[in-house]
Amino acid sequence: MTKFKENVIKIVSKIPYGKVMSYGQVALCASFPRGARQVGWILNKLNYEETKNLPWWRVVNNEGRISIKNSEYLPPEQKQKLEAEGLKIKKDLTFDINNYRYIPTPEEYLELTDDFLDEKF
DNA sequence: ATAATGACATGTT
DNA sequence: TAACATGCCATTA
Questions:
Q1: Which CATH architecture has domain A3-120?
Q2: Between the CA of A107 and the C1' of B6, what is the distance in angstroms?
Q3: Which among A20, A64, A110, A114 has the fewest CB atoms less than 10 Å away?
């Protein structure tokens, strides 16, 4: 279990009901500024126990598109879970992420680094 | 050690 | 709008 994975799990588990974050955002908040792809990789490899208590469906790409691939889970499943939380998703699996994007407060960011602060603020 | 792969992001054609 | 290119970096082959 790497620090990065722990942080990703912490961040994702904090996304409120009905809100979403992009992979890049999650990476930033986990103090891995350019780890977007690794976030996706981690979510893809989560075991059952981990997915059970983690709202992985609230993580989408930065354009508001469901971009799941080669996973146990399929795009329609994620779409259904998001719609169940009130999001309106088009049939091409896109939606207006700016209506639902979750912006964490600085207190919720983990292990802030100088590099991170330079980039974000 | 080197190369390919990916639930990504951003900019340019 | 869509396709392409480049950067990214852990994991896998």
A1: Orthogonal Bundle (1.10)
A2: 31
A3: A114
